[in-house]
């Protein structure tokens, strides 16, 4: 047994506090894989866990962190040996069982993947759940026939954030030349142009005006991370035969819409779930992230030491791009 530090969230009536606690690595017996964590990251959900009303965590106290990358220490599965570099995103990690915000974590072997060649432990968590989610959405978008035309008009919402910035930079790298990115802060325009946007609009422009059943056909494909009223205003603007990947609800979870874009324009609204994405398909996506999807221009990476993570989580400020947690 080894003593290690874990970040633990505890709930009072109105707040969630984050403190470091000393734990002992579990006796593995025949149950799971013990990993020494090298990197984790901060995802939207990890910040939500700091809100006692979010419902993200089923119970407190809990060590959060929905993903991590590190080295196997001990394993119940012969497929994983001590020293293997592995990654984990989603499943119940940091939700119902202790997650990646600890120096050691134990998870079932079926939640783990060996790192693909050409991705370091740090790069794996620069992507993290956000990059993996973007990869799922893009893999579905790229199956649409209209993407054969690289000048087809595509929209990426929440493009300064984790999921949106990966979707944007990867699409630009793949040669798409008509990419509209949204932000509520037009001071981010240069950053979004740097990632590959060809047009940057204020998110509020999408929701200006009354919500119509159908409006001007503007975008063939959409990667939406915002949901709510933003998605409601996007659907009537999707071209006939168009495709929308709905990844998130940063702007709201309620969707007010009509069937008209679906029955008169044949558009598709595809849900994206990274948490329980089938294991059999994950390896292929990580392979893409290690090769053709690996960005030449990465979204901003804000590096935070594990020892500073509690303070970082307690701050409400939003950072553009990604937060990488180094152990
Ligand atoms: N489906 C899945 O498996 C999955 C996986 C990961 C994430 N998600 C979801 O995807 C969404 C985005 O995640 P993320 O990691 O990209 O988060 P993020 O890094 O916080 O980025 C979200 C972006 O959305 C914009 N935004 C935030 N609140 C907004 C609001 N109220 N109205 C309009 N724009 C707003 C912000 O950009 P500006 O400040 O520039 O406007 C921000 O950069 C979240 O809802 C998250 O839960 C889903």
TrEMBL record:
<protein>
    <submittedName>
        <fullName>Quinone oxidoreductase</fullName>
    </submittedName>
</protein>
<dbReference type="InterPro" id="IPR013149">
    <property type="entry name" value="ADH-like_C"/>
</dbReference>
<dbReference type="InterPro" id="IPR036291">
    <property type="entry name" value="NAD(P)-bd_dom_sf"/>
</dbReference>
<dbReference type="InterPro" id="IPR013154">
    <property type="entry name" value="ADH-like_N"/>
</dbReference>
<dbReference type="InterPro" id="IPR020843">
    <property type="entry name" value="ER"/>
</dbReference>
<dbReference type="Pfam" id="PF08240">
    <property type="entry name" value="ADH_N"/>
</dbReference>
<dbReference type="Pfam" id="PF00107">
    <property type="entry name" value="ADH_zinc_N"/>
</dbReference>
<dbReference type="InterPro" id="IPR051397">
    <property type="entry name" value="Zn-ADH-like_protein"/>
</dbReference>
<dbReference type="InterPro" id="IPR011032">
    <property type="entry name" value="GroES-like_sf"/>
</dbReference>
<dbReference type="GO" id="GO:0043957">
    <property type="term" value="F:acryloyl-CoA reductase (NADPH) activity"/>
</dbReference>
<feature type="domain" description="Enoyl reductase (ER)">
    <location>
        <begin position="13"/>
        <end position="325"/>
    </location>
</feature>
<dbReference type="InterPro" id="IPR014188">
    <property type="entry name" value="Acrylyl-CoA_reductase_AcuI"/>
</dbReference>
């Amino acid at each position: 047994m080894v003593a290690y530090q874990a970040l633990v969230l505890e709930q009072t009536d109105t707040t969630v506090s984050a403190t470091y606690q000393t734990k002992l690595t579990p006796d593995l017996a025949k149950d799971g894989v013990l990993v020494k964590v090298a990197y984790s990251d901060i995802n939207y959900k990890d910040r939500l866990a700091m809100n006692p009303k979010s419902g993200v965590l089923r119970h407190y106290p809990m060590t959060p962190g929905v993903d991590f990358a590190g080295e196997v220490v001990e394993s119940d599965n012969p497929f994983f040996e001590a020293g293997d570099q592995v990654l984990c995103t989603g499943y119940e990690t940091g939700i119902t069982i202790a997650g990646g915000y600890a120096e050691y974590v134990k998870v079932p072997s079926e939640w783990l993947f060996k790192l693909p060649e050409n991705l370091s432990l740090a790069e794996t968590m620069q992507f993290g759940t956000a990059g993996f989610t973007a990869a799922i959405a893009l893999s579905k978008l790229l199956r649409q026939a209209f993407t054969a035309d690289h000048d087809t008009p595509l929209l990426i919402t929440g493009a300064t954030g984790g999921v949106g910035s990966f979707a944007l930079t990867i699409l630009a790298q793949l040669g798409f030349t008509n990419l509209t990115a949204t932000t509520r802060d037009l001071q981010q325009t240069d950053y979004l142009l740097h990632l590959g946007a060809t047009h940057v609009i204020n998110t509020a422009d999408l929701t200006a005006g009354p919500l119509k059943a159908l409006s001007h056909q503007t975008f063939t494909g959409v990667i939406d991370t915002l949901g709510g009223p933003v998605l409601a205003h996007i659907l009537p603007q999707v071209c006939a035969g168009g495709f929308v990947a709905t990844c998130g609800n940063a702007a709201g979870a309620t969707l007010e819409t009509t069937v008209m874009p679906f029955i008169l324009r044949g558009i598709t609204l595809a849900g994206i779930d990274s948490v329980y994405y089938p294991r059999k398909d994950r390896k292929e996506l990580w392979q893409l992230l290690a090769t053709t999807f690996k960005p030449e221009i990465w979204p901003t990476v804000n590096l935070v030491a594990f020892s500073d993570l509690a303070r970082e989580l307690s701050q409400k400020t939003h950072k553009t791009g990604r937060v990488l947690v180094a152990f």
